[in-house]
Backbone:
């Protein structure tokens, strides 16, 4: 099978076969990161622009390392260092970047649909590294990879996603990604932060966090932004952590081999109790490790590679 | 010049429906005759209207002409040309120009410019509050004297209920209606499209129906309190339709309009971040669209107005949340509205009422096909089938979600004060 997709924009547009192909490719990519010399010449001569309008540490570093391990030349641009501050529109900035002949543009943007706009108009491949509240496909892919790695399969698992669903592109992408691979996704959070019509993604909404955790194989906690308090989404951090935070006590409802995930960055002690974050069930750092492998796979496939290629 | 409109089906809702000839002389209707006119002479221009519909001039009581201040989007001249092509003999530009039309000078500027370059009637709407800021009343007496036919802060609601009350009372004294843009800015804050499953899947912040209906209901209450005529602009939700229907049943002097996009499209049109389908209020659900259509059918909604909102294309070629709101509507309103007749929802007579007589009634403008009346007439070709092509718009605004749509019906001839201002080839 060949990977014929020009862009990676969201989980909705990826087929089950394409998702599996990315995950399978990531297995061999992960092995590269475990070598003493963590570099293969696969993408030598390819130019990759990391175009980040929003601040990001994890995702940007992860993409950057992924590009470098494949020997691509990566250039990093941030919102403040680009022309946006001079009043240039996004599409004009992107056309200027394209004029320098990059192969792949990785875009992180505060507004939903921005990568789609670029993908439609540019010849370069566009990879969405997070657009507003909409999508974060590589995060979903690395989460799928990590769960598959730990459990051996995805189909039939019960995945609880808990917290600020409304503002979370990770939640949306994982609702679609896990559902596509046959898992049951259940959501829970403050009613102010469970958006209308989310069930149309094929997921269910539990009436409280305890119900969501009950029988779950995986619990994915989402970051709560403290600024949301000012727009009346929740009362106090104290109450949030008590009612909606994940504690050892609440985990008693879960399965004995439950996995705890978080896309990061974590508000330690707020949505996730400190001991749970560092506890045995936590696979948060595995997510980060796997992020590099999955992004290597995505870059490799988008740049024209075929599955299971010899990556030496 | 003498004009004879020959053999058309002349419909003046409530007054006239039949095959008639209309003779126009000195800018006025000289004669309407079912016997066949006997006028002749070298000065006589004959318009063959057999098979066509002849109606009182269509009026779009809600447009944005952008002049003064944003002439790159639209000018009075181009907006009027687009209106004439759309079959409109009169339009009412909203006051959110720069400077705002909240004083006599701006009103006079618009009227003068329109008289020189416009070729159709332009009846400005003045601002309810100075600078549209919602802090102080504009000079309604001066504005009326200069020629405004209604007052509105359109584009923005009047959030202060006390100011709205006083505006209604004060306007009542001058006999000018208030047009309300109903939107609770707190409830709608940050929203980019209709709240619901489409917005949730696209990750766009939503605008709930209640942000509109809550102000519709408030303004109906203020209308009842003050007794001044209230006109609700661009109705988009089922709850608003219910509230207006109930208010009318109770005898409160409220009227309402909707725009073609609200009875034609739903929020599904926004898919793929289609900024041409971005407007305020936003496109709603199928249930809302159906309620708006029923509201038009039973007369709860009196008027079809376009909310013509021309923008430069580059203002739409940006991230969805940053894209300008609005649709250039003047050149697509008639065929989209005629579809309601095709769908069996409205009779042709009722549709003509919604597009010509009702706005005239609300604004106190004479608009009848009778001897002695100004010759403001639209001749409609119901059979003309074509594809909407935005790049051919006379409006500077090419922003429309209807580009490429197959439609039927267009203005064949538009006559204003006895002058032919549009004639389709």
Residues:
């Amino acid at each position: 099978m060949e990977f014929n997709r020009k862009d990676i924009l969201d989980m909705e547009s990826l087929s089950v076969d394409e998702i599996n192909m990315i995950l399978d490719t990531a297995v061999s990519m992960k092995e590269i990161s475990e070598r003493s010399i963590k570099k293969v010449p696969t993408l030598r001569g390819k130019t990759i622009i990391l175009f980040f309008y929003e601040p990001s540490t994890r995702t940007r570093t992860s993409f950057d390392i992924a590009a470098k391990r494949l020997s691509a030349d990566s250039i990093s641009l941030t919102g403040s260092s680009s022309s946006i501050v001079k009043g240039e529109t996004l599409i004009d900035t992107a056309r200027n970047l394209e004029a320098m002949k990059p192969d792949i543009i990785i875009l992180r943007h505060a507004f939903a649909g921005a990568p789609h706009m670029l993908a439609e108009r540019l010849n370069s491949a566009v990879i969405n590294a997070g657009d507003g509240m909409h999508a974060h496909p590589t995060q979903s892919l690395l989460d799928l990879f990590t769960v598959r790695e730990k459990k051996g399969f995805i189909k039939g698992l019960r995945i609880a996603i808990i917290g600020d669903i409304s503002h979370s592109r990770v939640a949306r992408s994982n609702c679609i990604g896990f559902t596509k691979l046959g898992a049951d996704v259940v959501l829970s959070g403050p009613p102010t932060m469970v958006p209308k019509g989310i069930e149309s993604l094929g997921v269910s909404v539990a009436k409280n966090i305890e119900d969501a955790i009950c029988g779950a194989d995986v619990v994915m906690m989402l970051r709560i932004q403290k600024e949301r308090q000012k727009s009346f989404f929740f009362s106090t951090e104290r109450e949030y952590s008590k009612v909606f935070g994940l504690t050892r006590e609440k985990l008693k409802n879960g399965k004995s081999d439950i996995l705890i995930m978080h896309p990061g960055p974590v508000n330690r002690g707020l949505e996730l109790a400190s001991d749970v974050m560092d506890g045995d069930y936590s696979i948060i750092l595995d997510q980060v490790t796997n992020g590099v492998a999955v992004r290597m796979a995505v870059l490799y496939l988008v740049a024209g590679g075929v599955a299971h290629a010899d990556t030496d | 010049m003498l004009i004879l409109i020959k053999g058309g089906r002349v419909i003046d809702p409530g007054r006239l429906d039949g095959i008639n000839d209309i003779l126009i002389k000195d800018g006025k209707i000289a004669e309407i005759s079912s016997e066949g006119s006997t006028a002749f002479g070298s000065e006589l221009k004959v318009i063959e209207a057999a098979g066509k519909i002849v109606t009182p001039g269509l009026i779009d009581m809600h447009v944005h002409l952008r002049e003064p201040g944003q002439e790159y989007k639209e000018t009075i001249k181009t907006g009027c040309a687009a209106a004439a092509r759309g079959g409109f003999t009169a339009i009412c530009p909203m006051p959110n120009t720069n400077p705002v039309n909240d004083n006599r000078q701006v009103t006079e500027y618009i009227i003068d410019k329109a008289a020189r370059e416009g070729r159709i009637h332009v009846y400005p709407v003045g601002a309810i509050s100075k600078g549209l800021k919602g802090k102080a009343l504009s000079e309604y007496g001066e504005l009326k004297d200069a020629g405004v036919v209604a007052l509105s802060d359109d584009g923005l609601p009047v959030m202060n209920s006390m100011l709205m009350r006083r505006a209604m009372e004060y306007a009542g004294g001058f006999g000018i209606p208030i047009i309300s843009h109903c939107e609770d800015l707190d409830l709608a804050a940050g929203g980019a499209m209709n709240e619901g499953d489409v917005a949730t899947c696209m990750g766009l912040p939503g605008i709930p129906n209640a942000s509109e209906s809550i102000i519709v209901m408030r303004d109906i209450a203020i209308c009842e309190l003050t007794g001044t005529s209230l006109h609700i602009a661009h109705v988009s939700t089922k709850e608003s339709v219910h509230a207006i229907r109930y208010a009318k049943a109770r005898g409160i002097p409220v009227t309402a309009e909707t725009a073609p996009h609200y009875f034609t499209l739903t929020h599904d049109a926004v898919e793929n971040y289609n900024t041409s389908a971005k407007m305020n209020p936003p496109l709603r659900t199928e249930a809302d669209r159906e309620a708006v259509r029923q509201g038009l059918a039973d007369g709860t909604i009196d008027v079809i107005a376009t909310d013509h909102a021309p923008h430069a294309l580059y203002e739409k070629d940006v991230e969805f949340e940053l894209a300008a709101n609005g649709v250039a509507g003047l050149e697509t309103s008639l065929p989209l509205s005629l579809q309601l007749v095709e769908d069996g929802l409205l009779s042709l007579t009722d549709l003509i009422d919604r597009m010509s007589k009702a706005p005239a009634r609300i604004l106190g403008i004479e608009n009848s096909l009778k001897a002695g009346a100004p010759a403001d007439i639209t001749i409609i070709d119901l059979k003309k089938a074509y594809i909407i092509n935005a790049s051919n718009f006379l409006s500077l605004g090419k922003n429309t979600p209807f580009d490429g749509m197959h439609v039927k019906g267009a203005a064949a001839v538009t006559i204003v004060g006895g002058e032919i201002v549009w004639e389709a080839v």
Observations:
- Residues 307-312 of chain A have pLDDT under 50 and may be disordered.
- The longest strand of chain A covers residues 125-131.
